[in-house]
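Ticket opened by: R.M.
Priority: normal
Category: complex prediction / small molecule

The reporter submitted a protein together with magnesium ion and asked that the result be attached to this ticket for the collaborator who will pick it up next week. Submitted input follows.
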Amino acid sequence: MKITAAETIVTSPGRNFVTLRITTEDGITGLGDATLNGRELSVDSYLRDHVVPLLIGRDAGRIEDTWQYLYRGAYWRRGPVTMAAIAAVDMALWDIKAKAAGMPLYQLLGGASRTGALAYGHASGRDTPELFDSIRAHLDAGYRAIRIQTGIPGLDSVYGVAASAAGGGERYDYEPARPTAVPVEETWDTRAYLRHIPTVFEAVRAEFGPELPLLHDGHHRMTPIQAAKLGKALEPYDLFWLEDATPGEDQTALRLIRQHTTTPLAIGEVFNHVHDYTTLLSERLIDYVRSAVTHTGGVTAMKKLLDLAAVYGVKSGMHGPTDISPVGQAAALHLDLAIHNFGIQEYMRHSADTLEVFRTSYRFENGLLHPSDTPGLGVTLDDTAAARFPYQQAYLPVNRLTDGTVHDW
Ligand SMILES: [Mg+2]
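Result attached by the on-call engineer:
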């Protein structure tokens, strides 16, 4: 089953996506997601200039060998651009192998371990009444677990908070990348955040009761001792997890947080390799692995990472915002269904324009996601629709403290 063609498709149906399509001599095509929010064209170039020429003529069935060839063969290892490019190749080859077998990918990964993957949605509000409306809208949409992000008094624009309220037919999910020539700059005050967040969770628990799983993302903005303080303050509200408490590069920061709080911890959306996790897993410093299939080298690498996590009793909580394309999301759903140590799956629904370009077969029912039984990943790409949405330069925001110092966004 030789590879005869490989091409990238860059499209922007509301936001930018980079997709790799591999075609075999018998006409089977596979799709891989290579989207790296704010740096999309770098991965596109990496694939077109350095990877696609190596794929032509290779055996599409040799997935592990191709992964090692691209990873070890480049000499320069790891990094978000490299690992997103390898991920796209890996996903596309698994898509092809599963289509050739006439099976959904999860069957090749060992078959279903559950009936569906518990998904969490993103509720947010500029203030508590708006947040409550957003939580109710998510409950009405069927979500059984909800991430809570809210405005902070005194700050204009806060990570994770949609700019407008639900209703009026307007899309209200939070979309941080903005189509500007330079990044938008936001202002941040960690002490104001630390004062406010526990009061929000107290109000949410008082309104919605003790059962609903609640999550929160600190977006890498706290020092270890600040994160420890927040984790302790949130203990009465029984969070499902506190995510990205401290900057992602610093694995040992989680030691200090762990010493002080029983609030479960999740991290890893900016990681791209199993070696980013070795301390976190071996010392049991986290409860959930947040990596994306798209950014961690694909299905092959993610399966190995999750198997290592299982050894230490750590569960999955794969990244799934709208900057993961429906192809990357489908790959995560097949893993979610197959692995034993599944925890939860992030799920922000894509826009209507995105779903016109990427035709999905996965479904969301009663709070659970299922990848469908369509052979392969179960996603197709409509080239005509994709061509209607050309690439648009967009950046994630940059964050500054109130005195102007650049801070983690
Ligand atoms: Mg996060």
